[in-house]
Amino acid sequence: MPQLNPNPWFFIMLTSWLTFSLIIQPKLLSFTLTNPPSNKTPMTTKTSPWLWPWT
């Protein structure tokens, strides 16, 4: 069964992983974010209990 032979597929996986890690990923990480995250204070909402008519 050829799909169980890891010889050609392991090399293809290793080559693609190294290509992504060494070439593509540094190029992607060099981009600046157009909308950088800011430190906003979380809004607290006032909650009130429901008044059930049958209680």
Q: Report the radius of gyration as a whole number of Å.
A: 27 Å
Low-pLDDT stretches are none
Mean pLDDT across all amino acids: 82
- Please provide the ordered H/E string of secondary-structure elements: H
Give the biggest beta sheet: none
What is the beta-strand fraction? Answer: under 5%
Helix content: 40-55%
Which structural class is indicated by helix and strand composition?
mainly alpha
Number of helices: 1
Question: How many runs of DSSP E, i.e. beta strands?
Answer: 0
Distance from first to last alpha carbon: 70 Å
Name the shape in a single word: elongated
Secondary structure elements and pairings:
Elements: H1 6-29
Subcellular location: Mitochondrion membrane
Keywords: ATP synthesis, CF(0), Hydrogen ion transport, Ion transport, Membrane, Mitochondrion, Transmembrane, Transmembrane helix, Transport
Membrane topology: Single-pass membrane protein
Quick structural summary:
The chain is mainly α. The chain has one helix at residues 6-29.
Describe this structure in words.
The chain starts with 5 loop residues before the first helix and ends in a 26-residue tail after the last helix. It has one helix at 6-29. By secondary structure, the chain is mainly alpha-helical. The model has no long low-confidence stretch (mean pLDDT 82). It comes from Gavia arctica.
